[in-house]
Design brief:
By secondary structure, this protein is of the alpha/beta class. It has 7 helices and 7 strands. Strand 2, helix 2 and strand 3 form a beta-alpha-beta unit. The protein binds nicotinamide-adenine-dinucleotide.
């Protein structure tokens, strides 16, 4: 039986995002790029957004007609508005938003300036808020949508040497739940993803900071490839997760078990 606003999922394998339009932030490289490739494989049109124009353009060229690149600083509310308008003009709908853009710093609560704290919060937290707000009206009119916010294991635990980052990722988790509560009656789902150690440029910062063996703390004994996160994000973006909202999904090889 099919009810209004109740997704039908036959469980059959096939094109999982066929005909859908997805916006992914910070998608020129790393996890966002892996998500862009997987989404396009599954039939979506992907709007790759980032500050990194060359990498973003190259990725869009690699993916071909199923993708386009657009420069977007997630902290810029006006730019969000212009992006949404342009995507709607071209595609007529926005089905999926992945708030993936983020920055990592190693800092301690006692040594962090207000300016530095606000810089991290601006990108990792305000950027997610602005993205969710920007797509909400469109998704409400459609009476459908999936928003996936990329948090971290640092949004599940306290991390003394990543104070601002950890605070920002807890905020993403909290925003996800509050937004999910507000948007559920519009058939818009909002979930957070909590990656552990993922092999991207961001992880190289650990080595640069002198943390040479972070993998030693992972029960599975290895880092993940960005595609292992992309598979989870794809599932959350698709109707296969039709009854999941306001939840946190961990992909960390067991890092946050203890
Ligand atoms: N790599 C890890 O181990 C790990 C672990 C947990 C969570 N995460 C989170 O996963 C997400 C993706 O990170 P990644 O691992 O792919 O790292 P990454 O550094 O390769 O990707 C982050 C992307 O965000 C973009 N970005 C930064 N500031 C931006 C802004 N103001 N506007 C738009 N784009 C901006 C960067 O240009 C970059 O392309 C981030 O939110 C990160 O915090 C990463």
């Amino acid at each position: 039986m099919t009810r209004p606003g109740f997704a039908t999922n036959t469980g059959a394998m096939g094109i999982r995002l066929e005909g859908q339009t997805a916006i992914i932030t910070g998608a020129a490289r790393g996890q966002g790029a892996a998500e862009a490739r997987r989404f396009a494989d599954e039939g979506a049109f992907v709007v790759i957004t980032d500050l990194l124009d060359r990498e973003g353009e190259d990725l869009a060229t690699e993916i071909g007609s199923a993708a386009t690149f657009r420069h977007l600083d997630v902290t810029n509310q006006q730019a969000w508005g212009e992006l949404i308008e342009d995507v709607l003009d071209e595609k007529g709908a926005i089905d999926v938003l992945v708030n993936n853009a983020g920055i990592l710093v190693f800092d301690r609560m006692t040594g962090t300036s207000q300016e530095e704290f606000e810089r991290i919060m601006d990108v990792n937290c305000t950027g997610v808020f602005l993205g969710m707000q920007a797509v909400s009206d469109v998704m409400k009119q459609q009476h459908s949508g999936s928003i996936v916010n990329i948090s971290s294991v640092a949004g599940l635990q306290g991390v003394g040497f990543q104070f601002s980052y950890s605070v920002s990722k807890w905020a993403v988790r909290g925003m996800t739940k509050s937004a999910a509560h507000e948007l559920a009656r519009h058939n818009i789902r909002v979930n957070s993803v909590h990656p552990g150690l993922i092999d991207t440029a961001m992880l190289e910062q650990f080595t640069e900071e002198g943390f040479t063996e972070p993998t030693a703390h992972v029960p599975m004994g290895r880092n993940a490839s960005p595609t292992e996160v992309a598979e989870l994000v794809l599932w959350l973006a698709s109707n296969e997760s039709s009854y999941c909202t306001g939840s946190e999904f961990v992909v960390d090889g067991g890092l946050s078990i203890a």
